[in-house]
Amino acid sequence: MVAGRIDERRNELTPAERRIADVVLTHPQAVAFGTVADVARRAETSGATVVRFAMKLGYSGFSELQEEVQGELSHRLRPAAERIRERQPSEVVTSAMSIELDNVQGTLEGIDRRTFNAVVSRLADPKGQVFVLAGATTRGIGLLLADDLAMLRGRIHLLEGGDVQAARRSVDVERSDTLVVLDFRRYEHWVLEAVRRTGQHGAYVVALTDSALSPLADLADATFVIAAQGAGPFDSHVGTLALVNALVAGLAAKVQTSATARLDRIEDAWRAAGSLVDR
């Protein structure tokens, strides 16, 4: 994925190259169907810089970058108000299946294994707390992530309630802690501010977001880019859910012995309280 290559080299990009990267990620049509000069004009730089940017990402030149962007164009995020105006597919189920399979594949194939293993190690570290923070559009998956993590280990906290509550809870964050944040374009101001405050306390920040150049990626120690093209007017969270499931599975494997004992205690508590009906 182009976004994955940009993420790998984001710290090596010059200011002009970051402007080009922003054009690639936010205006893929201009790259897919434009010329080197068109991209250079949008990024307020030179054509030679555009070509050097493509080669820095590992492409032979602009043409190869353009071909990959064309292939990925269907994965890009656009506002629901724009997508609702498009002609809708005649066979929705088949279209949704194709798009969602691409979302899962694009998200999981883009994972850097060293980053993934480092994040799982942080989640498994018993010395640190884990905080989960999500914007409104990703709140459901954030809640699921926090619940699943809490089944496997203690000291898991869901940050919600807007800026006032998040600011209050941020005083509990320490350097040994980890914050997992989920949010997509358009990013919520209170989420960004909460991440900034948490980072100032020295916590390790993990971002699940839609772009390697999102403001969350700039604040994060580790970033996972989500493919989130929707079959309808809204963003899909299938890729996000697949990544969350992978992180939880990684944690379960890392802390299997202690997690087994914890799950047994939880099951005993549920059974004693008559909380669940099995049939």
Summarize this entry quickly:
This protein has 279 residues and is α/β, with parallel strands linked by helices. It has helices spanning 2-8, 15-26, 28-32, 36-43, 47-56, 62-72, 80-83, 92-109, 113-124, 139-152, 163-170, 189-200, 215-219, 238-254, 256-273; strands at 130-134, 156-159, 178-182, 204-209, 222-225.
Tell me about this structure:
By secondary structure, the protein is an alpha/beta fold. The protein folds into two domains: 2-76, Orthogonal Bundle (Arc Repressor Mutant, subunit A), CATH 1.10.10; 109-269, 3-Layer(aba) Sandwich (Rossmann fold), CATH 3.40.50. The chain is built from 15 helices and five strands. The protein has helices spanning 2-8, 15-26, 28-32, 36-43, 47-56, 62-72, 80-83, 92-109, 113-124, 139-152, 163-170, 189-200, 215-219, 238-254, 256-273, and strands at residues 130-134, 156-159, 178-182, 204-209, 222-225. It has a five-stranded parallel beta sheet with strand order 2-1-3-4-5, with helices on both faces. Helix 10 links the parallel strand 1 (130-134) and strand 2 (156-159). Helix 11 (163-170) packs parallel to helix 12 (189-200). The longest helix is centred in the middle third of the chain and has 18 residues, at 92-109. The radius of gyration is 21 Å and the shape is globular. 34% of the residues are buried. The mean pLDDT is 89.
